[in-house]
Amino acid sequence: MLSLPKRWRLGAIPTIAALLLGLIVLATVCAPLYIPHDPLAIDPLYRFKGSSAAFPMGTDNFGRDIFSRVMMGGRVSLFIGVGAALISVALGLAIGLVSGFFRTADAIIMRAMDSLMAIPSILLAIALVALNGPSLWSMIAAITISEVPRVVRLVRSVVLSAREEPYVEAAIALGSSMPKILIQHLLPNTLAPLIVQGTYICASAILVEAILSFLGAGVSTEIPTWGNIMAEGRLYFQIKPMLIFWPGMMLSACILAINLLGDAARDLLDPRLRKREA
After folding, report:
1. Which of 177, 214, 276, 278 has the fewest other C-beta atoms within 10 Å?
2. How much is the average pLDDT of 95-113?
3. How many whole angstroms from its chain centre is CA 48?
4. Confidence of residue 5 (pLDDT cuts 50, 70, 90)
């Protein structure tokens, strides 16, 4: 595994990743203000046009502007990634706190989580989308269900070690209520690893959406996403490879930036790594 100097991992690389991700987010969120064409407008007269001032990335098989579709599709892909990450972290945090602190509930909760983790995430997502139909919220729910068990196991491991600390035992001895102990004493210990885990879930959710859309089991094709655009373009890859190149490049850049920021957050927030590099 490549070992980068500390000044790069905690300095230049996170800065570049943050700038890249910020540029992608800004470009996609503000897309309705500057895109030159309606991403859903069909015009056969402009079918498979090359790059030009009117069509910066060319057009697809329906004459739709690729640039407008990629920018608008990024909004949906990022919404799925951020939404799945926030919901997964919130549910996993609540369940993990209960599982780690209450021994009687731990066995039941963890067996349920182990059962979910035994099912491959892609197959679980395909099954849920097939049952509920292709929609934005079905996709978020499918990704969330597969990610929650990982968050639960992470929070549970932190709580199991933290609940044996003297300050937690002192709070219990003083008669503090369980909600107060969980929120004031145990919850802060989980924030650092949850921030890191949340970035990885966000990147994974964006990638899973692209995979499912590429397989035809993702969001409805009426909603442009990076995965949907690549799925439609694969049939014409030999004629127009740019149909896949542009959304694929945006997808790769976004996931790379999120993962680099997650690595930087891990190095910054993990005290064991700081001691090792001191």
Report:
1. 278
2. 86
3. 32
4. low
Q: What integer is the mean pLDDT of 151-155?
A: 91
Among 250, 227, 21, which Cα is nearest to 122's? 227
For residue 71, the SS3 value is helix
| 60 φψ region: left (φ > 0), alpha (ψ -120 to 50), beta (else) | beta
CB-CB contact of 21 with 251 (8 Å): no
Q: Which token pair is 113?
A: 């989580």
In whole angstroms, give the CA distance from residue 22 to residue 16.
10
What is the residue-averaged pLDDT of the chain? 83
Burial class (CB in 10 A: 0-12, 13-18, 19+), 79: middle
Phi-psi group of 207: left, alpha or beta (phi > 0 → left; psi -120 to 50 → alpha; rest → beta) = alpha
Write phi, then psi, for 57 (nearest 5 degrees). Answer: -110, 10
Q: Where are the alpha helices (DSSP H) in the chain?
A: 6-7, 13-29, 31-34, 66-101, 103-117, 121-132, 136-162, 166-173, 178-180, 187-214, 226-233, 242-269, 271-277
Contact by Cβ (8 Å): 129, 139: yes
Burial of 233 (0-12, 13-18, 19+ CB in 10 A): buried
Q: Which domains does the chain have, with CATH numbers?
A: 58-277 (1.10.3720.10)
Please report, as a single letter, which amino acid is at residue 103: R
Cβ proximity of 265 and 195 under 8 Å:
yes
**CB–CB of 33/39 below 8 Å?**
no
**33-71 per-position pLDDT tens digit:** 989 888 888 888 888 888 888 888 888 888 899 999 999
Write down the pLDDT at residue 1.
39
pLDDT at 83: 92
User: 57 near 49, Cβ under 8 Å?
Assistant: no
